[in-house]
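Data availability (excerpt). The following record was deposited with the supplementary files.
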Amino acid sequence: MGESMTWLQAIVLGAVQGLTEFLPISSSGHLRIVSEIFFGTDAGASFTAVTQLGTEAAVLVYFARDIGRIATAWFRGLVHAEHRGGLDYRMGWYVILGTIPIGVLGFFFKDQVRTSARNLWLIASVLIIFALVIAAAEHYGRKRRPIEDLRLRDGIVMGSAQALALIPGVSRSGATISAGLFLGLTREAAARYSFLLAIPAVVASGLFSLPDAFEPVGEGLNASGPQLFLATLIAFVIGYASIAWLLRFVVNHSMYWFVGYRIILGTVVLVLLATGTVSAT
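Predicted structure:
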């Protein structure tokens, strides 16, 4: 049976979730790495999924005006055909259809995501391998198409890429933004759609995992209700700041900064594993 989580662990892991959720460096991978290196165990997939509710609440607040406008346009378009040509109506469909791949794969592979996929050898390797994918997207992407030019193909391709985030170490934003860059979108356009696209999948995953987060079963840390609430609240506050920062950053800076960080972190973890300093499981 896993050990009880301390308040310090809840605070640290909540902060890690908030800092890393929206950056293309994998929040689930960071939670797994930080919990293993500093606390000697795994925070758990359920804890990760529930604290993501905090960061997604940050998205809801930050993009509240956009979300309200998109939802209104989508419902209006369902009733009146003359309202179906606008970007907001189309965006509603793009988010819905783009969520299907991760919903289907997440349902069928939920057990693997919670167990074997959390092996640190895999996470460290994926951090490095997918860094090369992000670098290729930055190098080859034309970065000319604004958000207004988003099309159904873009929504489906980026939604399919989001499904890769089921593997810790990939990064939800890294996968979707990279796909957007390959499709010719600007970094800001790809990032904005990436944030909106994540909402249904992450909220559903967090709510689905909520009962499991309180179950004291298996190895790892078991959080109490108040600890889980605090970690989620911290993730919300820091996550909100992270969204604003990233949207400003991608306008004038390349993704290579994150590529370098991912390669360094992945290499450090591989060395720690190879020397027996930390355990892979």
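Summary of structural features: The first strand starts at residue 3 and ends at 4.
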